[in-house]
Amino acid sequence: MMRAENVSVHRDGKCVLAGIDLTLNPGEMLGVLGPNGAGKSTLLGALCGELKTSQGQLWLDGQPLAHWSGQQRAQRLAVLPQSSTLSFAFNIQEVVAMGRLPHDSGQHRDTEIIQASLEAADALHLRDRSYLALSGGERQRVHLARVLAQLWPGEGGQTLLLDEPTSMLDPLHQHTTLQAVREFANRGGAVMVILHDLNLAARYCDRILLLESGRPHAIGAPDAVLVPDALEAVFGLEVLVQRHPERGHPLIIAR
Amino acid sequence: MRPMTQLTAILTGLLFTHLASAQSQPQPQRWVSAGGALTEWVVALGGESHLVGIDTTSQHPESIKSLPSIGYQRQLSSEGILSLRPDILIGTEEMGPPPVLEQLRAAGVKVEVLSAGADVSALQDNLKKLGALLGHDSQANQLSEQYAKQLESQHDWLAQAQLHQTAPGVLLLVSHSGSRPMVAGIGTVGDWLIKQAGGRNLATHNGYKLFSTEAMAGLNPEVLVFTDRAQGGASSRDALLKENPLLTSTQAARNKRLIEVDPTLLVGGLGPRLPEALKTLSKAFYPADGSLNAKVAPAQ
Amino acid sequence: MRVALQPKTLFIALSVACLLAIWLSLALGPVSLPLMDTLRAGMRLLGVPVQGDNLQQAELILGQIRVPRTLLGLAVGAVLALSGVAMQGLFRNPLADPGLVGVSSGAALGAAIAIVAGASLGGIPESIEPYLLSIFAFAGGLIVTAIVYRLGRRDGQTSVGIMLLAGVAMTALAGSIIGLFTYLADDATLRTLTFWNLGTLNGASYARLWPLLLVCVFVIGWLPRRAKALNALLLGESEARHLGIEVERLKRELVLCIALGVGAAVAAAGLIGFVGLIVPHLVRLMAGPDHRIVLPASALAGASLLLFADVFARLALAPAELPIGIVTAFIGAPFFLFLLVRGRT
């Protein structure tokens, strides 16, 4: 669980993010949307402590973020970046096992968790392959398994931040990934995910934050936020919003 | 004398002789030598049969070339030398590395460090020491005196020549296939060669130093003495001028007064072949009939 | 592409190789000692009263020459290999080698400064000379590592090209300054500089070994404890931080470790290249990149490799000796080219 109050970030003297007030509650998935340069990655960086905030406060599980030691923080907060630059030939088992680094749960329990995470990320069949032999999409799923393993099972309100986890995936795996993240939230985890696909956000997220030029344009349920006026204002795109015939969530169609 | 007294005298004499020889150090039998000229002196003093190993700078006379090589004098190997079971290792201060010399001493090998200084008194000192070690003291004295005499006659010749001609400005260059020539400065054997042959060494620094070709050309030597560690003959002269084209502007090049010497003449202090080399050099410095281009052949 | 070797098999094989290397290094050399003599002399040196005639020479060769030389080879080999692993972890690139990146040259320059400064102060006392050289070499290696690191890191990634170019520049700069010293030095200093500059295990003595052995113990004791953190660092600095690792501290510690290791090795044995490149690479090829295996295995493999190379160096041209840096370059340079070519496919 995380809370941000009046957070702003400056870089090179310029304000790149301001006026951020949000809460990541256990069991909830918050989607962050916005055009390029809107500040989505900056927000994620500020929340996980990577970027220094020039104003505002951050709380993780009720305590100020800076209060936690590195290991304690890693037990409560995990981040899945957009891409990875790992260039050594670990096998998949080893990569996912690194997610258990902050914990002292013992080898037996770790192996169980690794297995479960790989299954959740639909990467179990890759277990004995070498990381370098995988495609971009497969690698992304392996890293998802790793961060899931880091916070497994998610029942304690642990926070998971994801930066465009579906960018390199085929349509099927875009859904299986977000479904796995959804299940993590359902178990009790607090999730914030940056997405560029409006419809994926509409389908999987409980709430949506629309960012524009570093400021929150709107935050609320998908129905409330994903409306044509707001989307045109933020993205400059004329859209139609309809309902998904089976699921009922908003379906955004470009005009 | 009565027989008994005679016998006593003989026996006493024998006893004393025996004691005397037992007291004096046994001469080292197996020699390893590191340092060009020193090896040549050992051979000149009749010690060639004692040599069991030589370094890479020891290349004269021809007959010793088949001896096992202990490598470069600055990179000796303790075990390598010990495998030759030497009694003594001779060399100059250039010999090393120091820990190896320590190990050899600890192993019971006598390590005699002789001077590589480019002056006659150092040489005479070396000869005396070598002579004592070989047990050929008289021969050493003889060689010493001979050397002095040769130098004397060299000086006499010079005195005559200098009545009619002035001493030429000279530079001595040591290069490798013509490139990166080092200039012999004060205190080197090269410098000694020039001066003894009656030239003026235009270099005023100490030791061997790298000069730019502009600097060399600027000094405008009348004679250029050069030595090439890689080549010999006409090709080395060509290589020198090719790598340093500015040299062609010097008087020496224009008057074709480029003289080659054998590089092994310059290592290990003053060597036995130098007086011969001096003769040829000085004839080139003071030509009877104008400029000469002469190669100084190594005297065997 | 990995040859799947179980860790246990790997360690057994490496331990056997190391013991074999030690044995060869003690038993072989330009002086041919009969096997029994070597064994008896060895036992004598360990204090076991053993009968035998003419063991003096064997005891001398073994005790004064071969044993210190073997110890030096083991220590230098292990430390250089471990420094290579640390370097590759720091730069997150398997081609990073302290020699290639200029760290060794920086260390050499440091030691050269110590020699020249010492000479101008009237010579360094024999007892502290190895320590003084090590300290200066360490400082030199530290400065160059820091410079190359700053230059080579961009957007959280290492640019190999920049790293190698920086290494070329550093090596050239260090070489030119040492050349300047050589030019300006008087004969005695020049001799000391030259003697020290040639990479060799020659002349190894117990006295000169101490700084290196101390560093060796430290590095071997400290690095493997950071194995898991090093694994995580390979994921990326941010990722490692998100896993709870104090990345900045780890990086500083790695830089210190590399500088210490390379500094001590260079001060004791001059410039010996490619060990830090070949050894970790071969180990990874055989057993994967997990540092918990790579670190101890590299130490064993590095020690063995250097000893084998040294035995070859002493015997190939006996009674002369090949500089060991030439042997390792002979193995290492083609290997490096092979790696570069393979990396393109």
Break the fold down into its secondary structure elements and pairings.
The complex is a heterotrimer of chains A (255), B (300) and C (345).
Chain A: E1 2-11, E2 14-24, E3 29-33, H1 40-47, E4 55-60, E5 63-64, H2 70-76, E6 77-80, H3 92-97, H4 107-120, H5 136-151, E7 159-163, H6 171-187, E8 190-194, H7 198-204, E9 207-212, E10 215-220, H8 222-225, H9 228-235, E11 239-243, E12 250-254
Parallel strand pairs in A: 3-8, 3-9, 6-7, 7-8
Antiparallel strand pairs in A: 1-2, 1-4, 4-5, 9-10, 11-12
Chain B: H1 3-23, E1 31-34, H2 36-44, E2 51-54, H3 78-82, E3 88-91, H4 98-106, E4 110-113, H5 120-134, H6 137-164, E5 169-176, E6 179-184, H7 189-196, E7 200-201, E8 208-210, H8 213-219, E9 223-228, H9 234-243, H10 251-254, E10 258-260, H11 274-285
Parallel strand pairs in B: 1-2, 1-3, 3-4, 5-7, 5-9, 9-10
Antiparallel strand pairs in B: 5-6, 6-8
Chain C: H1 7-27, H2 35-45, H3 56-91, H4 103-120, H5 129-152, E1 153-154, E2 157-158, H6 160-184, H7 187-197, H8 206-222, H9 227-235, H10 237-242, H11 247-269, H12 275-287, H13 291-316, H14 324-343
Antiparallel strand pairs in C: 1-2
Q: Which keywords apply here?
A:
A: 255 residues, alpha/beta, Rossmann fold, six-stranded mixed sheet, 34% helix, globular, C: 345 residues, ABC transporter involved in vitamin B12 uptake, BtuC, two-stranded antiparallel sheet
Structural commentary:
Chain A is of the alpha/beta class and 255 residues long. Chain A has nine helices and twelve strands. In chain A, the strands form three sheets. Chain A has a six-stranded mixed β-sheet, sandwiched between helices. Chain A has a four-stranded antiparallel β-sheet with strand order 2-1-4-5, covered by helices on one side. Chain A has a two-stranded antiparallel sheet with strand order 11-12. In chain A, a hairpin with a 6-residue loop joins strand 11 and strand 12. Chain B is α/β, with parallel strands linked by helices. Chain B has two domains: 110 residues, Rossmann fold, CATH 3.40.50.1980; 120 residues, Rossmann fold. Chain B contains eleven helices and ten strands. In chain B, strands 5, 6, 7, 8, 9 and 10 form a six-stranded mixed β-sheet that branches. In chain B, helix 5 runs antiparallel to helix 6 and helix 6 packs parallel to helix 11. The N and C termini of chain B lie far apart (55 Å). About 4% of the residues of chain B have low confidence. With 345 residues, chain C is mainly α. Chain C has a single domain, classed as ABC transporter involved in vitamin B12 uptake, BtuC (Orthogonal Bundle). In chain C, strands 1-2 form a two-stranded antiparallel sheet. In chain C, helix 3 runs parallel beside helix 8.
